[in-house]
Amino acid sequence: MSGQNEALQKMLQEISQKKAFAEQQLLIVRQQKAARTREGRMLQLTASEVASLPAETKVYEGVGKMFVCTPIPDVQKRLEDEEKAMTAEMSNLNKKEDYLEMTYKNSKNAIEEALKRQG
């Protein structure tokens, strides 16, 4: 009987660790999503500001410790590319979040079921 209890205890411990890890990773993913959302808003604001500028306006981009004059179409292209990359990254983060939520729920349900069977 004690062997069975030890096996159950070990199983519960493993599931609890998996649940805790999923919960921790979920927090990290949600923080990453919030940061990417802020960055996306900044990109959109920058793009709308650049789009509202007259064509002859000089635009400068920071490169290291200096600023380089860059044509407006080049700046707009870079902003579009960054927005596409941001969208792809958000999609990956959403998938990761869904997976971690499912792992968390399954671990939680497994613990509850094991405790119900035992008690």
TrEMBL record:
<dbReference type="GO" id="GO:0016272">
    <property type="term" value="C:prefoldin complex"/>
</dbReference>
<protein>
    <recommendedName>
        <fullName>Prefoldin subunit 1</fullName>
    </recommendedName>
</protein>
<dbReference type="Pfam" id="PF01920">
    <property type="entry name" value="Prefoldin_2"/>
</dbReference>
<dbReference type="GO" id="GO:0005737">
    <property type="term" value="C:cytoplasm"/>
</dbReference>
<comment type="similarity">
    <text>Belongs to the prefoldin subunit beta family.</text>
</comment>
<dbReference type="InterPro" id="IPR002777">
    <property type="entry name" value="PFD_beta-like"/>
</dbReference>
<dbReference type="GO" id="GO:0044183">
    <property type="term" value="F:protein folding chaperone"/>
</dbReference>
<feature type="coiled-coil region">
    <location>
        <begin position="5"/>
        <end position="32"/>
    </location>
</feature>
<keyword id="KW-0143">Chaperone</keyword>
<dbReference type="GO" id="GO:0051082">
    <property type="term" value="F:unfolded protein binding"/>
</dbReference>
<keyword id="KW-0175">Coiled coil</keyword>
<dbReference type="InterPro" id="IPR009053">
    <property type="entry name" value="Prefoldin"/>
</dbReference>
